[in-house]
Amino acid sequence: MSLSEAKKKVGGLAGVIAGSSAICTCGLGNGLNYYGYSIQDLAKMAEFEEVAYLLQFGELPKENELKEYKEKICANRNLSENLKAVLRAIPKNVHPMNLMQSAVAALGALEAEKEDFSDQDEKIIRLLGILPSVLCYWHHYSNFGKEIDFNSDEKTIAGYFLEKLQLSKPKEDFIKAMHCSLILYAEHEFNASTFTARVCASTRSDIFSAVAAAIGALRGPLHGGANEAAMHLIESFSSVEEAIKGVNKKLENKELLMGFGHRVYGVGGDPRNELIKEWSKKLGGDTLLYKVSEAIENLMKEKRPSLPPNADFYSASAYHFMGIKTDYFTPIFIMSRVSGWCAHIKEQRANNKIIRPSSEYTGPEPRNFVNIKER
Ligand code: CMC
Predict the structure, then answer these.
(1) Residue 127 confidence (pLDDT)
(2) Domains of the chain by range and CATH?
(3) Among residues 187, 180, 186, 161, which one has the least CA distance to residue 46?
(4) Residue 186 DSSP class
(5) Ligand 1, from 185, 307, 332: best to mutate by most atoms within 8 Å of Cβ?
(6) Is 262 among the catalytic positions?
(7) 62, 13, 54, 21: which is closest to 37 by C-alpha?
């Protein structure tokens, strides 16, 4: 095989080891582990804050450490008047991913990280605390002209977010499902948005710039935006029969089925799928929407066994059953993945070398410059 044939084979850097990391294993034995803990154990036995702590400091917290960590996150929920003014200026028809990205960029200006990054851990906690408030404040202001406060007895990000979004006490099951979803989305090795964050951090840029860049990468439907796109797919069918017909047609037309396939996991499947599917079934198993989802999954299993559902497919219906608007699905992904991004930013900074790969040149041979009047 020639060098250029070999390079064509790694389109999208598939299979390329682009750096080393101690944070996560993805796809080894088809598993997913954060600092050695399996995603199954974390999703079933931990709350999201324990996982965020693990990602930030490399070890699970002791009881008192978790208590203190959660208190710090809660103390970081408030928005400054300047940030509120920025959010009020963003109209309601804007995609909420742009809102979230703008808010993080604005934080970089209003609450800048120190140049020596000595406050990076405080900034990570600030991001964990403030991101749910950003989305909920903007939601109520842009839709109803109402300014919410940030007081709450809910001590977790999952409970606080649901309470402030819906302005009512969330059901216990919704909070548990949200914890599970936040844990599943928290970290995933060198995915596109995390790699973006590391590239940005490798230039010695600030943490808010790196997170804002990562949000831009997460937004696309091939990555985080897939949960929103999967919802649109599922909702477009009003019966199981229609779904089977519609998905068959899409496969014939070689269209992408959103929420299926994964660069790393392949046929073995995404280990996060069964964990979030369990919640989706628990919250809405008797609905048409769930039945349509399962029919699509079964058809894909039969027709494209190499493309099992990924974490986004049943996250979509789980969020829907919690009463969350579809275009808030990917912003929830941010509230979670910010923990993984920041773990990688810290790791990159601890042993930094600017990430600057090379490309294989495919352009014209060297040629003479032609004066503009003679072209
Ligand atoms: N539906 C239909 N066909 C597919 C799909 C799909 N979801 N995914 C891959 N294929 C086909 C693809 O068209 C290609 O066919 P061919 O060989 O005939 O050209 C073949 O399968 C190999 O796919 P690929 O494009 O080389 O795979 P990739 O590793 O480059 O892409 C992916 C991975 C996740 C971007 C892709 O599977 C996809 O676009 N899936 C739908 C979007 C999605 O659900 N993204 C979420 C990813 S996981 C969680 C996250 O990051 O948020």
Answers:
(1) 98
(2) 20-217+335-350 (1.10.580.10), 226-321 (1.10.230.10)
(3) 180
(4) S
(5) 307
(6) yes
(7) 54
The alpha carbon of residue 37 and the mean position of all alpha carbons in its chain are separated, in whole angstroms, by: 20
SS3 state at 354: coil
Tell me the three state secondary structure of residue 24.
strand
Q: How many CB atoms lie within 10 A of CB 247?
A: 23
pLDDT at residue 10 in the model: 65
CA separation for the pair 207, 276 (Å, rounded): 30
On whether the CB atoms of residues 68 and 62 are closer than 8 A, the answer is no
Distance in Å, CA 373 to ligand 1 centroid: 48
Residue type, 292: V
User: Is pLDDT of 38 > 60?
Assistant: yes
Which amino acid is it at 342?
C
Structural tokens at position 241: 């029969």
- Give the distance (Å) from ligand 1 centre to CA of residue 259: 9
Q: Starting at the earlier edge strand, list the strands of the sheet with 37-38.
A: 24-26, 32-34, 37-38
Pocket of ligand 1 (CB under 6 A): 12, 191, 222-224, 226, 256-263, 307, 310-312
Residue 164 has pLDDT above 50, yes or no: yes
- Cα distances from 186 to residues 39, 221, 222, 335, 336, in angstroms, run 10, 18, 17, 9, 5
CA-closest candidate to residue 177, choices 321, 289, 335, 297: 321
User: Are the CB atoms for 301 and 294 separated by under 8 Å?
Assistant: no
Categorize the per-residue pLDDT at 30 as very low, low, confident or very high, splitting at 50, 70 and 90.
Answer: low
